[in-house]
Structure formats: structure tokens, C-alpha cells
Amino acid sequence: MFKNESSISVFWKRSIESLPLSTTLLLKCKLLNSISVLSF
């Protein structure tokens, strides 16, 4: 587990920056779809 939220955001930022742009866009779309499904 992470100790605080800032380390989580740093972790995610590094992970996303290490991915190709197309992969990042795909992940964002999947995340948005998941949120949409959960909100209903």
C-alpha cells in the first residue's frame, strides 16, 4: 500500500508517461467507460 496520495499520483504519472500515447488514450477511454457503468 502507498503511504499517501501523492505517492500514488507520482506512481500513476510515471506509469502513464512510460506508456505510448495511444495506450494512454485507450486506458483513459476504458476508465471513462468504467465510471459511466458504475454511475448507472
Give your account of this protein's structure.
With 40 residues, the protein is an all-alpha fold. The protein contains 2 helices and no strands. The longest helix has 19 residues, at 21-39. It is flat.
Short structural description:
This protein has 40 residues and is mainly α. 82% of the residues lie in helices and 0% in strands.
What topology emerges from the helices and strands here?
Elements: H1 5-18, H2 21-39
Keywords:
2 helices, 0% strand, 40 residues, single chain, mainly alpha
Please give the share of residues in helix: over 70%
Taking the alpha carbons of the first and last residues, their distance comes to: 29 Å
Rg is 12 Å
Overall geometric form:
flat
Could you state the order of secondary-structure elements as H and E? HH
Q: β content, as a range?
A: under 5%
Count of strand segments: 0
How would a crystallographer describe the biggest sheet? Answer: none
- The oligomerization state is single chain
Tally the helices.
2
Helix/strand-derived class? mainly alpha
Overall tally of structural domains: 1
Low-pLDDT parts are none
Mean pLDDT: 76
